[in-house]
Amino acid sequence: MTNIEYTPIASTTLESGASFHRTERIFDLIKLDDPAAAVMTDLKKISAVTVAAQAPIDAANSRMKHRGVRLLLVVDDEDTVVGLITSTDTHGAKPIQHIQKHGGTYHDIVVQDIMTTQDKLEVICMDDINRTRVGNVVATLKQAGRSHALVVDRHEKENRQVIRGIISASQIARQLDIDIPTTEIAQTFAEIEALLASA
């Protein structure tokens, strides 16, 4: 390895009256009659954030915070999805119920203790996403009482399900430009329904 000497960059004083760049919107604003795919995080374009089933929930919380997400796919050593865990799971009633039933402390809990297991996960087919609207997605989440939905397609060669995307009620709210607390699922849907009614 060659020794390169790096010289400092010249600096100056901030001028009076200077402003700052404002970020461009990460998400395009949408309407309820836009294609449903407009609100899906496409895992072909954005990497899924995963966690091991044996990881402590403190680690899951840190991973969600660090990556700016509220849902982690729980995977085994072969990257097979065995469940999912959300920030609602880690900060809601599940940890308390687990401690009451099994003892220990919050820091003793691992992801698999409170995750939603694979056999309880309902999914939406990518084909249906491709032919429906954002309003249909909102109705689906509301009916299920969930803040997230998983979208699946099929592996071309092995004919098994593959998670293609993730839909989040809080992301839909951002894309509809509704300013709401993202932890309140019922409030999210109330705001979205109000928008529906006025459309």
Summarize the structure in words:
It is a single chain. The model is unreliable at 180-184 (pLDDT under 50). The chain has 8 helices and 8 strands. It has a single domain (36-198), classed as Roll (CBS-domain), CATH 3.10.580. The protein has a 4-stranded mixed beta sheet. The protein is α/β, with parallel strands linked by helices and 199 residues long.
Concise synopsis of the structure shown:
With 199 residues, the protein is α/β, with parallel strands linked by helices.
Keywords:
single chain; 199 residues; alpha/beta; CBS-domain; 4-stranded mixed beta sheet; 8 helices
Query: And the CATH topology?
Result: CBS-domain
Uncertain runs: 180-184
C-alpha termini separation: 63 Å
Secondary structural class: alpha/beta
Overall, the morphology is globular
Task: Describe how the helices and strands are arranged.
Layout: E1 40-42, E2 50-52, H1 57-67, E3 71-75, E4 81-86, H2 87-91, H3 93-102, H4 111-114, E5 116-117, E6 123-125, H5 126-130, H6 134-144, E7 148-154, E8 161-168, H7 169-175, H8 185-198
Parallel strand pairs: 2-3, 6-7
Antiparallel strand pairs: 1-8, 3-4, 4-5, 7-8
